[in-house]
Design brief:
Blueprint (H helix, E strand, L loop, with lengths): L11 E2 L2 E2 L3 H18 L1 H4 L3 H16 L7 H26 L2 H17 L1
Antiparallel strand pairs: 1-2
Length: about 120
């Protein structure tokens, strides 16, 4: 009998699809090429100038050891905000249950007395 209509394909399990690295690279390259082709200033640039502009843009995104570009600084700031919100939410969620809060405080007190 054929599988039900709502069952996942053979390549899908639990709603996830495995994507190969090459597929991601091809998709990104295709997106960038279409975006550049549609941009009015980029279509009139000579290839050397376009290559230099793309190199500078990707270099700014990749800069990790040297001076960080604006995009990287915004990304790092966003990661910090996300982590702060996640820790705050976790703390509030944990201490909103009085039994869990009491357990954690007792464990902290006991470990402080032992050391």
């Amino acid at each position: 009998p054929p599988p039900p209509a709502d069952s996942p394909d053979d390549g899908e399990q639990d709603g996830f699809v495995m994507v190969e690295k090459e597929d991601v690279i091809d998709a990104l390259a295709s997106f960038i090429a279409v975006y550049i082709a549609a941009h009015p200033r980029a279509s009139s640039m000579p290839p050397a100038q376009l290559q230099k502009a793309l190199g500078a843009a990707f270099g700014e995104l990749r800069a990790s050891g040297g001076p960080k570009g604006k995009v990287r600084k915004v990304w790092d700031w966003g990661v910090g905000v996300y982590r702060g919100v996640a820790w705050t939410y976790g703390t509030v969620a944990t201490f909103s249950n009085p039994w869990v809060a009491r357990l954690l405080l007792a464990a902290g007190y006991t470990s402080a007395r032992i050391t």
